[in-house]
Amino acid sequence: MLWSIVGTLAAICTTIGYIPQIIRGIRTKNLNDVSPMMLTLLLVGCSLWLAYGIHLKDPIIALANGFTLSFVITILLLRAAYKKNNS
Amino acid sequence: MLWSIVGTLAAICTTIGYIPQIIRGIRTKNLNDVSPMMLTLLLVGCSLWLAYGIHLKDPIIALANGFTLSFVITILLLRAAYKKNNS
């Protein structure tokens, strides 16, 4: 019971962690320091985790990585949009 | 067998994903656009995942999050150092 709370809290932290990055990007209109290679590797990784979670029928792995994937895609799109506007 | 490869590849991508961010930071000497709140939430999340992985005796969860934790701490320390130098 305690450990399932630890696991759930872990998944929540590493998922909602990307929301402050989205907010910071929208506020400063600049995401140049954020590595596009990091975002690409996270995109591939989260897609594979999502497939793995669906295969295992594990709702925590699937949901956490589904949300993280959508946040990472948002950061990638914002970064590209701001880079275009700033150049 | 196929699915354990998918899970392992997923863990590798979401772990090594932070290395390009460290390299970019060292190259540009600037990590200002990277959200410190994101890094803090990832630090807490990976610590909990590491504890959860050790509890489950799952080497993939423990190792992946141990490495990710060390990368996130590195990015946090680099960000603080560059912020001090640039101000």
TrEMBL record, chains A, B:
It is found in: Membrane. It comes from the Bacteria. Keywords: Membrane, Transmembrane, Transmembrane helix. GO terms for molecular function: sugar transmembrane transporter activity. The keyword Membrane applies. It is a multi-pass membrane protein. The chain crosses the membrane at residues 6-23, 35-54, 60-82. It holds the Pfam family PQ-loop. Signal peptide: none annotated. GO terms for cellular component: membrane. InterPro entries: PQ-loop_rpt, SemiSWEET. This is Glutathione synthetase. It comes from Candidatus Brocadia sapporoensis.
